[in-house]
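Internal ticket #5521
Category: modeling
Description: The requester needs a full-assembly model to guide mutagenesis choices. All entity lines are attached below as received. Residue total reported by intake: 770.
Assigned to: D.W.
Attached entities:
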Amino acid sequence: MATTTRTPADPTKPASPKEPGRLRRSYDRNWYAWAMVLPTVLVLGVLVLYPLAQGILQSFTDLTEANQQEVICTKTLGGGETCEENPNQAEFVGLKNYVDVLTGQRGDFWLWFTNTVVWTTACVFFHYTIGLGLAVMLNRDFRGRGIYRVLLIVPWAVPAFVSAFAWRFMFNQNFGLVNAVLGKIGIDPVAWTDHRWTSLFTAIVANVWLGVPFMMVALLGGLQSINNDLYEAAAIDGASPWQRFWNITMPGLRPVSSTVILLGTIWTFNMFPIIFFVTGGEPAGQTEILVTGAFRAAFEGIRNYSLAATYGVLILSILVVYAGIYRRVLSKQGEVF
Amino acid sequence: MRRLLPALAGTTALALALAACGNDGGESTSSNEPDAQSSVDPASLEAELTWWDTSDPTNEGPAFQELISQFNEEYPNVTVNYESVPFDEAQNKFKTAAQTDSGAPDILRAEVAWVPEFASLGYLYALDGTPLLEETNFLETPLSSNVFDGKTYGVPQVTDTLGLMYNKELFEKAGIEEPPTTWDEVDEAAKALQGVGAEGIYLNAAGYFTLPFMYGEGGDLVDVEAEQITVNSPENVAGLQIAQDMVKSGVSVKPDANDSYGTMMTLFKEGKVGMIINGPWEVANIDADKAFGGFDNLGVAPVPAGSGEPGAPVGGHNYVIYSGMDEEKADAATAFVQFMTSPESQAFIADELGLLPANADAYDLIEGNEKVAAWEPALEAAQPRPWIPEGGLFFTPLDQMATEVLIQGKDPQAALDAAAATFKSDVVPEYSE
């Protein structure tokens, strides 16, 4: 990072008119640092800042696949080409896209937003609690601990879309494993994908299964960094296991937890393949989350780049606001990452 | 983003030289009318072509590959790179490739609704004036799906439509002598089938498969002439109401949003459902199923009618040529597409797979082919769809509508109104509601 390589200006040296200007001095002293930083700045500019700016600009136009060209040429096989100016070229439309999307004239923004919030909250909650439970169990000494650790990490190694298809099939109403098991214990088969919440439930189950290993590994690392002396001292003082968990383990895990929860939230918020492949938005688009809904709105049929950009900017804004609030809450509690 | 204009100078000269294969009547801007028709010696044609086939790779693909090797016997120096691309990915994949000008195939098997869309974006060669459109006898409706803005951008490979497919053995058991011709008769037949332990019908909860209900009452999606959205017309509401009642009364199995189509096919082939509404593309699949009894056990009839005439949507596939293809390959591409759409080739495919030829002359060659003959009455009930660039976009809102009406029991009027609103906002904004 730039901040770590910068040399602080020497405050004891008085500025004399004969010496070169501040900029020049700074350059003389720090040119090496600037040279080191330059590639990063360039790469970030090309890979992040330029597309970001372009995306934001596009969201104020009505650019689509059909109106992006200035001229449309029709070639005839065997020779001949007629070109004519595109009669309806993309133009600046101001905030129209945002108004359309936020008032629900196009797509179903608020339905998708509600789904996204439910989906993210449920997934992150279960990721964290189940991951923590497993991490605490695996942090003890018992036989075969290594094998359990390996087995529990397996879901993470399976590509997301593969497990998504597997889960989709397991929840199939007629031929799936879940309904077969329910039938064995005398429960009527459930038409999982026919209702909004049961359909969302299947996606959440699939994603929890996928996401727990990461939480488990991260939290296990956090647990192992907690000094064992604390537990011993607490035990001598007569603290119960619960008291030790709440007063030593949880505070000890705070730095890890705050990071993985933030990361988990952002990942889950933008977790495309699970919703796309497990529910496919069924029934009737009622389980789309913001990213899948935006994808469908923008890339199915004649591609609407400006609409896609609008969704992108909205999603980015929501996450930036969320991260800002999250960070502020944490810093009030004395932790900044 | 913007597609580069091809380097004109060199290509045009070359193109004019290559234009030898008949240009009369074409709309090309080249002023030099090419002189005599030069017959190209097949052995001298040399090129490498890529073809994206979107047919089913296990049931249908091998027959098309067989056709390619027949083509190569005639044109030994034209290499055809056969690539099987899954049907539901092909549209997006082709557009991405065409837009970035990298990796697009020279020739694509495009679904009928894709052609006007690709053509409007400038991704296809117009074929006017090429031998592909001369002295051919393509069926009018399938050919019409290739026309956009007065030019023709593809030639039909196969045509299809929806029909009522039924299990002959179950019909016999239930004592049903004639396949039902109206939805009311479907109700009766279903009750008879339920008497012998089967289910009546499985209605696939997808937009395309609800079209017979709309057409059967005289409805349609849009009125292209009047630029009007008619999807929420009283006719369509009445049609969808019939469909919903069939599910609610148990005449139809309650479809399921998780793989509705696959479930329909599995239940039908297992003999658990007596009737389905589906198309000829499944004939090879059903024929191969010994448990079902193969084609011998399969009955095909036109889609049932409502209060009006029976109507089913026309589907099918066309061959189109990517406009980014090197003009030098024009002769080879023409020869290839010409070969694939010839009456002989289409008859071969019909014999192998039971797909319906789009070339009228092919029907003379396949007299006695039961699989094709079975579909002829159904084909008479086929209605062309609105061939506009947005034609493929109608189906996402319609799929939602079908799920809401058939699975979730939503009021047809409300569901169709919602579809009409989406048509207005996302599909054809310039049309009136």
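Resolution: model delivered.
Comment from assignee: Residues 96-332 of chain A form a domain with the MetI-like fold fold (CATH 1.10.3720.10).
Ticket closed.
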